[in-house]
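[Help] Beginner question about ligand-bound structures

Sorry if this is basic. My supervisor gave me a protein sequence and a SMILES string for pyridoxal-5'-phosphate and asked me to "get the holo structure". I don't really know what that means in practice or what format the answer should be in. Inputs are pasted below exactly as I got them.
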Amino acid sequence: MSSIQQNIEHITSQIEAAQQKCGRAPDSVQLLAVSKTKPNQAILDAAQSGQLAFGENYVQEGVTKVQFFNQNHPELDIEWHFIGPIQSNKTRHVAEHFDWVHTIDRAKTAQRLNDQRPDHMPALKVLIQVNTSGEDSKSGINDEDIFALAELISSLPNLTLRGLMSIPANVTDYQSQLDAFQSLAKLQKVLSDKYPDVDTLSMGMSGDMEAAIEAGSTMVRIGTAIFGARDYSKK
Ligand SMILES: *Cc1c(COP(=O)(O)O)cnc(C)c1O
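Answer (accepted):
No worries, everyone starts somewhere. Holo just means with the ligand present. The predicted complex, written as structure tokens, is below.
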């Protein structure tokens, strides 16, 4: 077994332990492997152990990987999640290549993704990115604007609203992590009462996964703990 495969096994057992500890059903939290900056070989390695959902942050890099796997490994049937900031001039590439987008925080992006989604592809599954910690994150909308954006998305035929996502401030104390995640989970509850397709809460990364799971995360986004530290010097 490769080290990536061992890491996935380790994370999977941590997810299971966290679910069990707070009384959540087994398999209620999906693992999204964040492969940004990592080579195709690392993704292939993970995919061959059964990990088939990957998150990418940079449009060009992500599209190149999607094309590579569509051409060379169509049998793997990978699910691609776009989890980086989206500039409006790049929406077309995202609409044409990805299955999910976690980072919608304005009407214009939603509208463009809808208009540019090819007819032969299923509706793009989308999450609204919420700025739960105010100051230190530039991305994400504020709580009070979520519902207007949700209403717009639900009217767009080529998008399906599936829930919320956040990247909270990088704090290490468990209670602060939990507080931020629980406030997102409350908003999610209101949203899911209104929109039946809403079932996904994308929160939790390598450093705060346990608190996210306790608060109700259904998808944790893990990069470093699977693929090792990222090297940005070559970008
Ligand atoms: C990079 C990234 C992750 C993964 O972070 P790690 O700390 O490497 O686990 C998760 N979510 C988003 C949005 C990211 O950009």
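A couple of things worth pointing out: The beta strands are 30-34, 53-56, 79-82, 100-104, 124-129, 159-165, 200-202, 219-222. The two ends are 29 Å apart (CA to CA). Feel free to follow up in the thread.
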